[in-house]
């Protein structure tokens, strides 16, 4: 099990953000970049739902799949949708993702009982 680099994780995050933003634009008609707080919240909502469901059920998102990353619990399985939504909501706040322990696990991963590995 290899711990992925921070650069790989950030690139996966940017891909996932782009997918969520494009989904929000296509399905709701919000503009990108968002023109107001309401449009921004719609995009963040899409991000939390998309990433939460994919991570919870599959263990990876589109960005993580492209970059060979997976989110898993200590047993090596997907963390489930409720924990993945918690993880993603905390990730959206940014600070919990920046504060890391010696194993390069952010507070959002610790709170959700998750770890990110390179596959």
List keywords for this structure.
119 residues, 6 helices, globular, 2 strands, single chain, mainly alpha, two-stranded antiparallel ribbon
Structure write-up:
With 119 residues, this protein is mostly helical. It has one domain (6-118). It has six helices and two strands. Strands 1-2 form a two-stranded antiparallel ribbon. α1 packs across α2. The longest helix has 23 residues, at 6-28. The radius of gyration is 14 Å and the shape is globular. It starts with 5 loop residues before the first helix and ends with a strand. The relative contact order is 0.17.
Give the N-to-C terminal Cα separation: 8 Å
- The amount of beta strand, in percent, is 5-15%
Low-confidence stretches: none
Kindly state the percentage of residues in helix. 55-70%
Q: Class by helix and strand content?
A: mainly alpha
Shape: globular
Mean pLDDT over the residues: 95
- The number of domains is 1
Task: Give, in spatial order, the strands making up the sheet with the most strands.
Answer: 1-2
- Please tell me how large the radius of gyration is: 14 Å
The largest β sheet comes out as: 2 strands, antiparallel
Q: Helix-strand pattern, N to C?
A: HHHEHHHE
Number-wise, the strands total: 2
Quickly count the helices. Answer: 6
